Structure to design on (266 residues):
DNA sequence: AATAGGTTCAACCGCGAGTGA
DNA sequence: ATCACTCGCGGTTGAACCTAT
């Protein structure tokens, strides 16, 4: 169902992603994070725009993403929240673990919009006294129940989502912190040692496209490293490289502040 | 079996917000 | 204050897939 591939005037590929591109992108981000989307494709070794890479990661490759059929409960959450806040797909997505905003938007446009319109039509007919209320229709009432539950829970439907409130507040929405935020969605395994920064890694990371090894394909749901450990190690051992980092627009000031504020996390 | 029309969903596009120089 | 840049969001598109005839 994907679009056929082609190249734009800048030589960047557009259209459907190949398995090879997916592997390169996923392996790179799981190893290094998405520190800068516009520069990332070059380092990951894919001929795509940063925007395209971000979209592919967020909507398809990100760990813990669900694919496939929506449950009745998920549908009810979407309908309920849409009634409340409108087309705020990213906000709705925060209430549905494992669903991307794009997927929710598609779900609404292809299935739920019609259902909501039907419900509205029935509701208006009832209000006008044209039809008796249909007590046998569970859909209308389950949406209402979802509303009530959302209100009871203070807007958070799933208790397991509470971790999102425990995320360190980010001084910047970009770079390292967004990668950490997305990474925390996956299981951070405490028994995995963060990668150390050896000479070879430094050279490859900043000067050469990333070529995933056979063993860099990381099972879904497992993060090998924390960006805090990653950069801490880097600063500690290779602080002379800071100029290089700054030319790549690394958010040093924000990072340092953030590390100070949240050092207990590690 | 062929095909026309409808449906689905991955991916693109444009825009606005945020940030730093 | 202004400009340049990145990021993220929401609307839209287009090709594959499905279904009815």
């Amino acid at each position: 169902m994907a679009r056929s591939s082609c190249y734009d005037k800048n030589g960047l590929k557009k259209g459907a992603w190949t398995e090879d591109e997916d592997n390169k992108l996923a392996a790179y981000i799981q190893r290094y994070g998405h520190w800068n989307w516009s520069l990332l494709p070059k380092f990951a070794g894919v001929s795509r725009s940063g925007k395209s890479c971000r979209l592919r990661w967020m909507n398809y490759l990100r760990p813990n993403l669900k694919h496939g059929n929506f449950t009745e409960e998920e549908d009810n959450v979407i309908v309920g929240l849409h009634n409340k806040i409108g087309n705020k797909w990213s906000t709705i997505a925060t209430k549905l673990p494992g669903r991307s905003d794009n997927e929710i938007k598609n779900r609404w446009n292809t299935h739920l919009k019609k259902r909501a319109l039907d419900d509205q039509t029935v509701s208006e007919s009832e209000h006008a006294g044209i039809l008796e209320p249909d007590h046998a229709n569970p859909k209308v009432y389950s949406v209402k129940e979802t509303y009530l539950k959302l209100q009871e829970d203070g807007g958070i439907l799933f208790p397991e989502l509470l971790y999102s409130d425990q995320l360190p507040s980010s001084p910047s929405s970009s770079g390292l912190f967004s990668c950490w935020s997305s990474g925390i969605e996956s299981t951070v395994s405490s028994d995995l040692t963060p990668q150390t920064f050896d000479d070879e890694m430094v050279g490859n990371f900043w000067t050469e496209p990333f070529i995933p090894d056979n063993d860099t394909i990381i099972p879904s749901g497992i993060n090998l490293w924390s960006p805090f450990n990653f950069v801490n190690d880097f600063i500690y051992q290779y602080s002379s490289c800071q100029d290089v980092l700054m030319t790549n627009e690394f958010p040093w000031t924000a990072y340092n502040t953030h590390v100070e504020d949240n050092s207990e996390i590690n």
Observations:
- Chain A has a mean pLDDT of 61.
- Residues 1-4, 16, 36-38, 50-51, 54, 58, 87-90, 101-102, 105, 109, 173-175, 178, 249 of chain A lie near DNA strand C (CB under 10 Å from a C1').
- The CA atoms of residues 243 and 250 of chain A lie 10 Å apart.
- The first strand of chain A starts at residue 6 and ends at 7.
